[in-house]
Amino acid sequence: MSSVAYKQADYKSDVKPIWCPGCGDYHVLMSFGRAFAQLGLPPEKIAVISGIGCSSRIPAYTNCYGFHGVHGRSLALAAGLKVTRPDLTVVVASGDGDGYSIGGNHFLHACRRNIDMTYVVMDNHIYGMTKGQPSPTTEPEFDTALSPGGTGVAPFHPLVVALASGANFIARCFSGEPNQTADVLAQAIKHPGFSFVEILSPCVTFRPDEKAWKDMVHPAPVTETSDQGKAARRLMTDDGFNIGILYRGNRPPFQPAIGASNVDLSELEKDFEL
Amino acid sequence: MAASPSISIAIIGSGGAGALTTVDSLLETASAAGWHGLFTRTMGPQIRGGEAAGLLRLAVHPVECLPDRFDLMIGIDWLNAHRFGAEIKAGPQTLVVSDPRGGDLPPMVTQSGARVVEVPMKEMAKAIPDGRPNMIALGIAARLLGFTVEQAFAPIEKRLVDKGSAAIAASLAGIKVGFGAAAGIDFGMQLAAPTPSAARRWLLSGNEATALGAIRGGIRFAAAYPITPATEILEWLAPNLSKVGGTLLQAEDELAAINMIIGSSYGGTPALTATSGPGLSLMIEALGLATSAEIPVVVVDVMRGGPSTGIPTKSEQGDLNIAIYGMHGDAPHLVLAPQSVGDCVFTTQWATYLAETLQAPAIILSDQFMGQSRAAIERPADVAFIGARSIASEISGTYMRHAMTANGVSPMAIPGTRGGQYTADGLTHSERATPTSGAADHLAQLDKRRDKLDHFNFGDHWASIEGSGDLAVITWGSLTGAAREAVERAAADGIKVRMIAPRLLTPIQPERLAAALAGVKRILVVEQTHGGQFNKFLRAHYDLPAPVRVFNRPGPLPITAGEIHYAIAEWR
To answer: Which of B263, B289, B413 is the closest to A80 by Cβ?
Structure first.
């Protein structure tokens, strides 16, 4: 731990969020600060990487290094950063559209690759930035202008996919409980390998019904497990509102050896010499 | 018998017949003896089987293009030769050595008037335990080219070291039988003696040269998705990057690859990816991000026939438009093209240097012809272009990532640097990197990103400019070698021609091209595209001071020096 004591405020920038009043993401931002402070991480040693969407706006609202990239590709960008800069703490921020729809393939491979980073998906079951279209986690009957009468398509189950793909830490949080969220985030960051934290973060503008989430969430009535079979059953039978750490694996993270080298480039040229 | 400065050989067989191995080892033999050479492969999309031909041109001078027609053609078999017949031209001077049991002679032979000599290579090979017809072909080629059995055998022995003594003995026996069989064949040609040189000789492909240039330029991270014909760049980088403290990640797709290298470069490690047209199409969005966020990255596109899946194994220059104009919005960036196998080293190193210096993406347009050809060349010289990014290391006050500076380049804070925290963004942003939708910031940053490229002094490396005369041949990329040879041949006929081949395609260099074209009365544009993309590019961006003719043809047929020479001679 660092000798400097950091406070939550040390991780907040002076950029004013574009989020709607009452958006769950404000609390996630707060939880980020609390988790970083709890771990005593210097802000300049943290990189917050994101894609596109309401949740992906979060890097600029922190006082960390950040990258607000293109839609759906944050995990790939973060992978390139972390393998070349293993000294940094890399946190990836995404949403249910950015992470599960356009970025779905990268999600699978990030879990599989198990690079030491933390993936936070703020899930509100809707596309907020484009004003209310169904996302991969939207309920099939939810009516929108783009899907009159509902999509009729079953929602995606991100935690099950994460487990099957090899994520090393799987948790669900609720933005409305920022202290507990901060605590889970801190554990996720500390845990080696790819940690996946899904945060239920209500969209009060396009999903006012999600205000009820605060009464629906409940602590997961389970003990932590590193058993994938047990975790699979738990996640497959999950009601979507279990809060807590649902799986903590022990796969070693992927980190190629990199760093200074004293090999002379002329060594490489020997391949070509006759 | 007069000695010729250049001789060309094609060895043809079904995939798996070993035609490519045979030609590759002939190149090594000739190279060890002091000749220059270029070995190009032509094949179909098969993994194993199908048609394959190794095309080799040996010369006393550097070789950067294929011949107009081949002097010696050895057909181990002709089973699938009709599929690429148009790419391998024979003539009345050509000697064809053919196995009588190798199938019917293809039209490219029967219609050429070539002299045909039959040698039963398969039968001869059968008489040797584990014998292979391609070793008989190697023995024949060696004798006709004036090499000894030992010279022909040396590279084969090196290759078979792990295969055991039986395989080595079988190959040697095959070469000897072929050598003996060629005793009665009058080739009628002889390769002139090589010019002695103290320079170290190298044997490498354009793709390997590209990879070496990347490391020389400071690249220490690569991420990529396998794709023909670029994969050899990655396969050379994977082990070699780790020797120099870097690494390569195999990405799940090209979208991931380009974003991975942006992440690496953002973190301070110069990074590259290599792909071909379909992959470049997928990378375009993120290249716009790198442009906007001013993150240097290098993307090598080894072009193949297009559009869509096109012809993965054969060359074309059709990605010029997407490389220059692919991004949405106004997104100035660097586009460069190497001009030969050896030049892949320089151009990739220079592109890396420019990307790092100017904090902009660089797209390198190589192609299948250069990338997958192997050349015997002199060691490419070391140059001083090594990644030189402007870094903000001491930061006091508010850090302005995209600060306006005299040259448009702003010192970049690398994560870990205290006080330099900023969020890189593809949104229009202020100097502070904060998102904005205001007109003033938008214009200021667009101007900055344009001016930093336009005002940079790229020096003489921007183009190869050779010869003089009032006719100018303007070409680019791997056609430079054929154009150079055409200009030399025209000069031998007493027609003075100048050649201009830009290595730097964007940013454009209007003053430099105007100087190169001073006094020109005719301009011949030569390119390997169907739609004349390069001609349209030139006309859109440059004032061409004279009438223009265009000689363009899509791949996969190579454009030869002879054809360019003809187009020059015809325009009097």
So the answer is: B263
ipTM: 0.98
Type of residue numbered B532: G
Distance CA A63, CA A71 (A): 22
- pLDDT, mean of residues B430-439: 97
pLDDT score of A1? 46
Q: How far is A239 from chain B (nearest CA, A)?
A: 31
Supply the pLDDT for residue B83: 80
A138 residue type, one letter: T
Query: In A, residues 73-92, which contact B (CB 8 Å cutoff)?
Result: 73-85, 87-88
Query: Top-level CATH class of B459-570?
Result: alpha beta
Pick B244's closest partner by Cβ from A45, A64, A263. Answer: A263
Whole-prediction pTM value? Answer: 0.97
What are the tens digits of pLDDT across the range B372-392? 999 999 999 999 988 789 999
Interface test with A, best of B158, B260, B429, B432 (most A CBs within 10 A): B260
Residue A268 to chain B, least CA–CA distance (Å)? 7
Q: Measured between CB atoms, does A257 come within 8 Å of chain B?
A: yes
User: pLDDT (tens digit, 9 = 90+) per residue, B332-345?
Assistant: 999 999 999 999 99
A117-123 vs A194-200, strand pairing mode: parallel
CATH architecture of B3-191: 3-Layer(aba) Sandwich (3.40)
Query: A146: which strand partners?
Result: none
Say yes or no: do domains B204-378 and B459-570 share a fold: yes
> Looking at the complex, does the CB of residue A258 fall below 8 Å from at least one CB of chain B?
yes
Name every chain B residue with its beta carbon within 8 A of the beta carbon of A268. Answer: 212, 215, 240, 243-244
Residue A10 in contact with residue A43, Cβ under 8 Å? yes
**Chain B residues inside the 8 Å CB shell of A263:** 243-245
For residues B86 and A156, the model is more confident at: A156
> Chain A to chain B, count of Cβ pairs less than 8 Å apart?
186
Q: pLDDT (tens digit, 9 = 90+) per residue, B225-253?
A: 999 999 999 999 999 999 999 999 999 99
Q: Which residues contact B511 (CB under 8 A, 6 or more apart)?
A: none
What kind of fold does domain B204-378 have according to CATH? Rossmann fold (3.40.50)
pLDDT digits (tens, 9 = 90+) for B16-66: 789 999 999 999 999 999 999 999 988 877 777 778 899 999 999 999 999
> Which has the closest alpha carbon to A188: A230, A241, A262, A248?
A248
Strand extents, DSSP E, B278-373: 298-303, 334-336, 362-367
Question: Which pLDDT band holds residue A261 (cuts at 50, 70, 90)?
Answer: confident
Domain chopping of chain B, boundaries: 3-191, 204-378, 390-456, 459-570
Write out pLDDT tens, residues A164-173. Answer: 999 999 999 9
Write out chain A residues lying below 8 Å of B418, CB-based. 42, 44
What is the CATH code of the structural domain delimited by A18-269? 3.40.50.970
pLDDT band of residue B493 (cuts 50, 70, 90) is very high
Contact A76 B28 (CB under 8 A): no
Q: Bridge-partner residues for B249, per DSSP?
A: B223
Q: Which residue of chain B comes nearest to A256, CA vs CA? A: B247
Distance from CA of A217 to the nearest CA of B (A): 33
Tokens standing for residue A178: 């920022």
Are the Cβ atoms of A69 and B255 closer than 8 angstroms? no
- pLDDT grade for A3, boundaries at 50, 70 and 90: low
A171: which 2 tokens?
């948790």
Question: pLDDT for A95-146, tens place per residue?
Answer: 999 999 999 999 999 999 999 999 999 999 999 999 999 999 999 999 999 9
Read off the tokens for A228: 């994938």
Provide the sign of the torsion angle of the four alpha carbons B485, B489, B492, B496, taken in this order. negative
The domain limits of chain A are 18-269
Which residues of chain A have a CB within 8 Å of the CB of B242?
A: 256-258
> CA–CA separation, B227 vs B231, rounded Å?
6
